[in-house]
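Hi all, long-time lurker, first post. I run a small reading group and we've been trying to get comfortable going from sequence to structure in the token notation. Rather than ask abstract questions, I figured I'd post a concrete chain and ask someone more experienced to write out its structure so we can walk through it together at our next meeting. Sequence below, copied exactly:
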Amino acid sequence: MHHSLTRLAALTALLIVLQGCKSSGGVTGFTNEAPTPAATSDARKVPSVKGIPPDPGPAAIPRISEGDLLQLEVFQAPEMSTKERVMSSGEIFLPLIGAIKVAGLTQEEAEQLITLKLSENYLQNPQVNLFLEESASQKVTVVGDVGAPGVFPIKGKMTLMEAIALARGVTKTAKDEVVLFRKSAPNGLTAYIIDIEEIQDGELPNPLLVGGDTIHVAVSGTQVFFDRIFGKLAVAPVPL
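-- Answer (accepted) --
Happy to help. Here is the structure in token form:
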């Protein structure tokens, strides 16, 4: 019994030390420090910054491109509701209207254009909804210690936490910090180290993503270690 208590006390002390080390490296918010090198999986070095990336502004609003699949709903004329893929010409073909160019437009702009075309000759005060069913170009990648890593299309505006949710969330062994890789001019890459707990607690805003972003959720070595140790302790017989 004495040996068991001694071992448990030692493990508890180690937990406190490691948790202290972990918390000392946490992200506290924006930083004015110059970017520092961060290693990617292919051993290239990229600048890294602690904190969320700057607001991408209009770049966070996806624009329709060739190959996108669009869903159109017209409330007064359900027979016109359809799904159309954007052709190489940047056009979609709609009943009554014919070919209409939508590539380069936002979802809202395309809705307004289709509404205008319908109201000119066919419907009075048409109500049109246009949805981006599948994006051919605007996608984000979520990898690492998540439930279902993958590539996900951006539908409307997408935040960091929404992308992680699409990947079925982080696992119990994931770090609190994630790395968001974003293309930067000219032809560069910047890594943003973000504490997602601070986002969940409202201490940091939930950043908007842009097409081409990659989110990497790393495994916490400390958490894996203690899962193994305390998992064994939970099933090991306690000597009397």
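A couple of things your group might point at:
Helices lie at 2-24, 107-121, 160-166, 196-200, 221-235.
The chain is about 25% helix and 30% strand.
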